[in-house]
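Let's do one together. I've listed all components of the complex below, 598 residues spread over two lines.
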Amino acid sequence: MKRVPLAALVLLAAAAVSYAAPRARMRADGEVEVLLPETVLARKEVARQLTSGLTTAFVLRVEQRKLSGGARVEIRYDLWEETYLITVLEFDGRIRKAKVAAAKLAEWWRGAALRVLRTEDPSESVETRLQVLPFSAREEADTERWLSESVGASPKKNATTDPRSSANALLDAIIGTSVQRRPILEFRWSLRIEALP
Amino acid sequence: MRRRTFLVVILGVVALVIFGSVVRSLSLGPLALAANEDVHDALRKSLDDQKELARTHPEQAAAYRARFDSLRRLTTHLEVMALSRLTLTRRLELALVLLVAAMLVAGGVIHLAETRARERRLLRLQSALVALSRGEAEIATGERGRDLIGRISGMIEEAAREMTGARRRVQSLEHLSAWQEAARRHAHEIRTPLTAAQLELGRLTSFVSKRLPDAADEIRDAEVSILEELELLRKFTTSFVSLAAIGEPRLRLHDLSVLVSDFAASCGPMWPRLRIEVAQPSGDCRAAADRDMIRQVLVNLCSNSAWAAGEGEGRLRLSAGRHNGLVILDVSDDGPGLPEDVRARLFEPYTTTRGIGEGMGLGLSISKKIMLDHGGDLEWIDTPVGATFRLTFPAAAGESA
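Okay, and this is what the predicted structure of the assembly comes out as:
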């Protein structure tokens, strides 16, 4: 009696693992597109970031032998409109923007095929790395500026001999090296390229 | 060395103050806000409130929206700060570690440099001590510091100077003692036959005068002439004795500035063409001295100056003062000074610039001997004008007589 539920659990876990991996598909024009798993969004770190009002960036990098490519998805929740503002940058520089209602984000995510690479060898798998960054470069720069102004850093010119200006310079240096985007999550997959039906 | 250590300490304090200022700025300001969940909750609620107000009062929606955007920017900053808080804390810790490490390294480097410098100075000190033990006269360590090594170096240099002076005085004393002994023997050897010759001359004169009464006047003239020559010889011998018979000084504490003033007042008239001036004394001039002997030295020196002035007017200056544990009496005249060929053997007996029969050249030797017996010295000082003789006495701290 006990073996049946155990086998069911193993199967469910296997299904979950397979579902957690992204999918790479080869298009007719030789471009590879990647569909990221919904489980990325479901992670609590990501879910929290997505509702913080900061721009969450998903940076995808792919490599296939000597070829490399990638894509970036930036999602910011507009607290006033209560919608997600999405910007997608693909490997060839093409930008797509979308405004998605909060309830529709998962649906958009599932259908968001990210063009990451052009290849002629679909038999070779691609090495994929996804980093989730908690805020954008612009938000980083804005915060650095605000922090410097708030604590009285950003020393004036010709004030280098003043100990306070030395403190400000040190403060600026610490702020400049501390307020940095560091991935809150990172995933690595090796994907087999499927042919697009 | 101390200045460098002080500088490092000052720099360390300044660095810590700067660091403290940075930590204070961050920890009391935005970092504290970012770490406070209540602040985040309040901001979120405020954002919701602005939205609600805009819905309730659509006519003021723009104002609420503007306030909303302002709050949202602040929220964004605090969210970013909250995410960077750990890194920021680590950076501050790293900065503190680097600061302390820099101070330790600086302290270590300075300690090393000081140790090496001290080693070099100690080697110089060692060389100076070796030179001192060899009896070298001129020792220059090159140390001018006011610390312990500098002071010890100064003491070694001073000791070398003292030892050189003492050695020179001992040599002079031995030299003059040898001359004294020679003078004593010569005086003894001359006086005995001189006395015998005087007695025999009297007997001879008496004998011959009885036999040759006609030649009595001529015999008396011859006797007087011989006696005059013998008197000259006796005087010569007496001067020998004056060098040989210098006694031990009977030392008593005197204020030498007073002694000099008294001397000028009482003995000045002995040299009518010499104008004697007494300078204002500088410092405590008390020293142990034999008053009569010192007066004899001063008489010798003044006599020399008066002789050097010749027929003209001369000026002589007496000054007393205290310097480096010595009481110094300077006797300076404005005469022609000393010929160069005399200077090197100035204090040797029978050294004189006077003509035959004008002096034995014993005055300066006797004066030198007197001063050496006082534990002091008599030196000739090279001056551009005239001649200056310096009498030095070990200064005393006792009460003056």
